[in-house]
Amino acid sequence: MSANVLLVRPDNAGDVLLTGPAVRAVAATAAHVTFWCGPNGRRAAEMLHGVDDVLCAALPWIDPEPDGVVWETIASLAREVEAAEADEAYVFTSFHQSPLPTALVLRMAGVQRVAAICEDYPGALLDVRHRVPDGIHEVERALSLVATGGYRLPAGDSGRLGVRGLVDAPGMPQDPFVVVHPGASVPARAWGADRYTGLVDALLSEGWRVAVTGGEDETELTAHVAGGPRPGVTDLGGRTSWRELAGVLSGARGVVVGNTGPAHLAAAVGAPVVSLFAPTVPLERWRPWGVPVEVLGDTGIACGGCRARDCPLPGHPCVEGIAVGEVVDAVRRLLSDRDRSLPWLLGGRA
């Protein structure tokens, strides 16, 4: 194949990372791959193997804090897509999203072949209206879509997540250490800050060094969780770029994190994950992919799949019931079973 292919996933960084195997499947034979992401996903899209160019634009039907839909916005998007000169496009979505508004922009831009997973009648918006079984993982969902165009992973590609361009972060601790990442993209997916502080205390008592990570807007949280300056704990909150965070995660023996973007970044660099999983989205679709995982949390709770940004129930029962001791036990199990020969083919600093 020699097509110029546009791949579309305009969500958060974690969503973009989960398309990584599908991107590599396309890049194996396509002439050129452009990835269209939103502002929240750009840092991940730039690290995916197989991406030649990144087109970044917020879509008001996807963005969590959208601006209004006006003609000039849509026309501007179409002009940007037209400039990419794509022969075909694949619109990646989650099970609860419609690809049709994006497909309309692609048609306005003159893309000749558009494929997406879609339940609704697409009219002339899609050339390929693909169907998938309920409950498959986001990685499998994306791979299934690009397979409709004949794109499959090349021989020797395991189908794990992967990123390129890792950078060592200044001040990251020496091995062995465990990463604790207390933040989440939405509050409904976060374990309590005081619980995380207790976890850091417990890991220190087990003899582990701990790196507490978080974004620029989470420095107050990471300082609280780290418990202030003290031996054995490194507070990296607000001190790492996305590439540097990947470097920290790749050096960790294990990562404790909720179901948020850094969980998928950890998987992309081969780090085992203790997942404190708040089932606002289904576990079977969103669990960390391709690495050893210990999942904690009430994933069978009746309100699972709520997609809430803020938990409406007193006490946040799906994750606040997780005890610190349970997490420590999960870390023990995960690290005692860790195979240090885990292939690192797709994580790289080049």
Walkthrough of the structure:
31% of the residues lie in helices and 15% in strands. The chain is α/β, with parallel strands linked by helices and 350 residues long. The strands form 2 sheets. A 6-stranded parallel beta sheet has the order 3-2-1-4-5-6, with helices on both faces. Strands 9-8-7-10-11-12 form a 6-stranded parallel beta sheet, sandwiched between helices. Strand 11 (273-276), helix 11 and strand 12 (293-296) form a beta-alpha-beta unit. The radius of gyration is 20 Å and the shape is globular. Mean pLDDT is 91; it is low at 339-346.
How is this structure best summarized?
The chain has 350 residues and is an alpha/beta fold. The protein has 13 helices and twelve strands.
Please tag this protein with its features.
12 strands; 6-stranded parallel sheet; globular; single chain
**Structural class of the helix and strand makeup?**
alpha/beta
Number of strands: 12
Mean pLDDT: 91
Q: What does the overall shape look like?
A: globular
Strand content: 15-25%
* Strand line-up of the largest beta sheet: 3-2-1-4-5-6
Helix content: 25-40%
Number of helices: 13
List low-confidence stretches.
339-346
Biggest sheet record: 6 strands, parallel
> Secondary-structure element order, as H and E?
EHHEHEHEHEEHEHEHEHEHEHEHH
Structural Rg: 20 Å
Distance between the termini: 27 Å
How do the helices and strands line up, and which of them pair or pack?
Elements: E1 4-9, H1 13-17, H2 20-27, E2 32-37, H3 42-45, E3 53-56, H4 71-83, E4 88-91, H5 100-108, E5 113-117, E6 128-130, H6 138-147, E7 177-181, H7 193-205, E8 209-212, H8 219-226, E9 233-235, H9 242-251, E10 254-258, H10 261-268, E11 273-276, H11 283-286, E12 293-296, H12 317-320, H13 324-336
Parallel strand pairs: 1-2, 1-4, 2-3, 4-5, 5-6, 7-8, 7-10, 8-9, 10-11, 11-12
Helix pairs in contact: 2-6, 4-5, 7-8, 7-13, 9-10
